[in-house]
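[Q] Does anyone have a clean structure-token version of this?
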Amino acid sequence: MAEPFRCGLVLLAAGASTRMGRPKQLLPVGGRPLLRVVAEAALAAPVAPVIVVLGAHAAEIAPCLDGLAVRVLAHDGWAEGMGSSLRAGMAALLAGGETFDGVVVALADQPELSAAHLARLVATHRETGRSIVASRRAGVWQPPAFFAAGHFAELQASAGDAGARRLLQAHRADLIAVDWAGQDLDTPGDYENFQAGGGS
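[A] Here you go.
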């Protein structure tokens, strides 16, 4: 009997939200904090475990995840950049010695992330055999993205602010993209536009 396909998810939520001017992880979206909305979408997808990497304002943000079946990691080295947080998340995923076929790397500032889109990333890998499946918005490859186990070593060596995006650029031949209309909330204007477009 074949072993079941196993895919974890690392949700990066460690940034200081300097452009937003307040912790964007706590922005109200549909009456709930943004980070909780994104974490709930991840929990509804065919991925496990869901590891949430916190950093700046961790003590203030962590309570918004109360009651959710996620693993919360407070990463002291978050100021080194997104690559450092990704390294920490991968270390937490693999710390127990479990074997995974892949991992999805997602960002906590994407309010339109859905379980269906995450499932599509995983399914596209299984259907095509491509080792990286990225989201594509307006022609740009970006997270959330699926990485097969063969890329784990590179994810564990991430550095700087590029995070998973560097791997997307470095492995064009291995990559396939899935179109997605989701957006990042980086500035007050982004949040205002999201709300004006029907997000709440």
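[Q] Thanks! Anything notable?
[A] The first helix runs from residue 34 to 43.
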